[in-house]
Automatic annotation (TrEMBL):
GO terms (BP aspect): DNA repair
Highest taxon in the source lineage: Eukaryota
Pfam families: AAA_33, PNK3P
Protein name: Bifunctional polynucleotide phosphatase/kinase
Length: 286
């Protein structure tokens, strides 16, 4: 909205963003002795952050309030995630491709980077991909994996694979063909996955996943839960909810038949600087 106005509706007048400011009451302020209730959202503050201008609350600007009230920003900061400069794999020396035919079982939210990595490995190393987006059922994924392994081709299982049963099917298939099975768990919180899904719709590069929004992602909250700890990577942990026990995330273990379990960090590759600029914005929070 701002950029459209600045480019097309401002009479060609250049805007000095350093001297510009935005005043709004959706500032993410918490309930305090100064404020009887918390702000309904942080949308105004996030808008100012996204376009790079100064922000003031009405109290600060009109009433000259000097005290800065405590406020909360979204738990996922896209800029901080990019600036962390994480390595792609943990352990860092993870071998890709492996030695001989293998099955890589991916685990993670929609939008966590599974398909991006799968396509990259397919392009660079000749892996074949099976997923329910195209094959629709796990049974067809298993059958296709068997066909590919029979041809001595390595396979990537690009599904969410939240539970042990989903993963073990492919471990058993790998074993039956004398192939190795490895598990790749994607370090991505719900908030980051929602951000990623919104981002890929905005830049229009992922038609295959254009319908994956927050509503769809919410269905996976019964399967995955995030643990965000400062200075640590987000990890997938067991959901402590007895009513949803049949949908709980089950931490992958070597006992399922994996030769190793690898953690995968979200390390995006941008086609241009404009795409990175958009990614650094807060895209989901109201």
């Amino acid at each position: 909205m701002w950029e459209h106005f600045e480019k097309y509706e401002n009479g060609g007048i250049s805007i000095n963003r350093q001297c510009s400011f935005y005043v709004g009451d959706a500032a993410g302020r918490i309930c305090s002795s100064l404020r009887g209730k918390k702000d309904h959202s942080a949308a105004d503050r996030l808008f100012a952050l996204n376009i790079g201008i100064n922000f003031f609350t009405p109290e600060q600007y009109f009433l000259k309030q000097t005290h800065i009230e405590n406020y909360i920003l979204p738990s996922f900061s896209p800029s901080l995630s990019l600036d962390a400069k994480l390595c792609l794999f943990e352990p860092e020396d993870t071998a890709v491709p492996g030695e001989g035919p293998e099955v890589l079982v991916f685990v993670g939210y929609p939008g966590s980077g599974k398909s991006f990595l799968a396509n990259k490995l397919a392009r660079d190393y000749g892996y074949e991909i099976v997923n329910r987006d195209t094959l629709k059922t796990w049974q067809k994924c298993v059958e296709n994996a068997k066909i590919l392994l029979k041809r001595k081709q390595s396979v990537i299982v690009d599904n969410t694979n939240a539970d042990a049963q989903s993963r073990k099917r492919f471990c058993d298939v790998a074993k039956s063909f004398g192939a190795v099975a490895r598990c790749f768990v994607f370090n991505c919180t719900f908030e980051q996955a929602a951000h990623n899904c919104k981002y890929r719709v905005i830049i229009g590069t992922d038609e295959a996943h254009s319908d994956v929004g927050r509503m769809v992602l919410n269905t996976y909250r019964n399967k995955f839960q995030d643990l965000w700890l400062p200075l640590e990577l987000p990890k997938l942990v067991h959901l402590q909810n007895p009513k949803a026990a049949h949908l709980d995330f089950q931490e992958p273990t070597l006992a399922e038949g994996f030769s190793s379990i690898v953690r995968v960090n979200f390390v995006p590759e941008f086609a241009c600087s404009e795409h990175e600029r958009i990614y650094r914005m807060y895209l989901c929070d109201s």
